[in-house]
Write a structure and sequence with these properties.
The chain has 375 residues and is an alpha/beta fold. It contains 16 helices and nine strands. The strands form two sheets. Strands 2, 3, 4, 7, 8 and 9 form a six-stranded parallel beta sheet that branches. A three-stranded parallel beta sheet has the order 1-6-5. It binds zinc ion.
Length: 375
Amino acid sequence: MRRGYRSKGQDRGLSSGRRIAGAAVWTIALVLSACSAGSTSKSASQDPPGILQPSQEQQELSGSTGSAGSAGDAGLSGRVQFSTPAKQYRFIVGQSDPASPIPAPAATTDPASPLQAAAPVPAPAPTQTPTSPAASVKSKKPAIPVQRQQEQQAKRKLTLGELRHKYSDIFKVNGQPGVKRIALTFDDGPDQLYTPQILDVLKAHQVKATFFLLGKRAEANPNIVQRIVQEGHVIGNHSYSHPLFTKLSVEEYKQQIDRTSAILQAQIGYTPKLIRPPYGEITEEQLQWTGSNRYVIVNWNIDSLDWKGLSADQVSHNIISHARGGAIVLQHSAGGDKQNLSGTVAALSTVISKIKADGYELVTVPQLLKLSKQM
Ligand code: ZN
């Protein structure tokens, strides 16, 4: 299941990458290939009731990946106000057809023709004269409206690269290219196995890094969260249960962020400002919520690909061969049950030494981006 998801993600990444130039191409491809702690979630069946279009949501979830489910979401319903199903449905319709003032095709098309109701008719209002049957026929094959519809659809779903450009103030993948600074980041922790080993290496080299934690794992491993903070590292929000955000409504996205914020706030004394979406994926509507709530999305432009269980040599090569000023490096400090991150741990000392030897300073993401770590 997970493998299936990844290849889909990578495909999408390539498609995104074609639209943007230079380094962004591989950046986006990398963005979509990483973050593999989805195995923490085993069930997608506990989503809160009343969420919009549940059958479609579940179908999409099960069709794409079991690993991106939302097992932890069951506990969310106590904290969050849900809209009625009707309201949610209306909202989704609005999302899928933002340029149209018409909420649903059925309401605007010829009621006598069920087939026509399924056809795209974004702006047929002037032709809907009840006295003119010809007008009704005419509206069946409106060349321009179809084209407009296609344009609207193309416009509706921006690629990650396009979103990054459009929302560059709140969607980051690197710092200033000119600076001799690089930020190491570690996702999916904390755990009791790999995170402590990574902390040991960072401590030995006196390097501060940024850990994007899962709320669920922070709850389960509070002592490791404390150690991360005490040793001077920065903590970011990596969702509660590692779902694929693009399969979530804005409300569900908000739940994942808010719940994790609350957990981390209680443990570390601040609400992390930085969010890293699982798999690097996010929708435009979620980005807008992110900006409105003063969070910042931080992806990466160097992927160690360590989630594949690579050797130390492979991991260090993937990082060092791409190292450059302003880079944000993705690694993992915890994985799924069958994930082996020993390569990450074994590579880290070499990576740090080499990057430093090349004249770079290793900094946290807030230092690199000149942002506050907290809200
Ligand atoms: Zn992840």
